[in-house]
Amino acid sequence: MEEYKASLEIIAPTVEEAIRQGMDELGVPRDALNIEVLDEGSRGVLGLGARQARVRLTVASEEAEAVDAPAPAPPSPEAVPTAMDRPDSASADDEETLRITRETITDLIQRMGIEAHLEARFGEADAPGKIRPLLVDITGDDLSILIGRRGETLNALQYITRLIVGKELKKPVAVVIDIEGYRARRETQLRQLARRVAEQTVESARRMALEPMPANERRVIHIELRDHPGVTTESVGEGRERKVTIIPRT
What strand order describes the sheet that includes 208-209? Predict the structure, then answer.
């Protein structure tokens, strides 16, 4: 049976920038992607005749990776640390990260004149070696101003928090902020939308474009339909106008 893989075509000023955008949308590291440069682009002469780069990114087969990757050798008994040998620095680092994140978000929303309660905790990493997400839930009375139109204010708050906390800790921190369960509700809506439009695409045999979405929402669409037998997806457009197009398989 043919294996279907998630793939994207990205247009950006440079090949490297296109690859970075694709990594963000698909949520996978570079070494998990097959990269095909469709057009290296050109700067033109004095800005005239400039052409953007275009690449196609395809998620590599997880099964192939599992077969090709050598199994790690079992550690010798001497190499396995006992409970007495394990440092507790990881736990201390986690507590420091949680504290700084809570203080940063509290300060930001108070400066906006908003009173709210927040809880922060670590989630599970998507895959071995990936950064564990730091999940922050904000609750309170009438926090719609913190969500904004299509979650724009929420995304901005999350982005600023990541920058501040990452700079403070001198390492990247995958902060994911939710307000009154907004992200969970929105993700459910997006998955339902993806399936509905995919069926319409199959029935009509015509490609269909969704409304412009931020990268995290486009990623939900790509993931939901990556194993769909009748359609494939790609992101088109630039900046705020970037959207997912659902394409019938031929």
Answer: 208-209, 243-248, 231-236
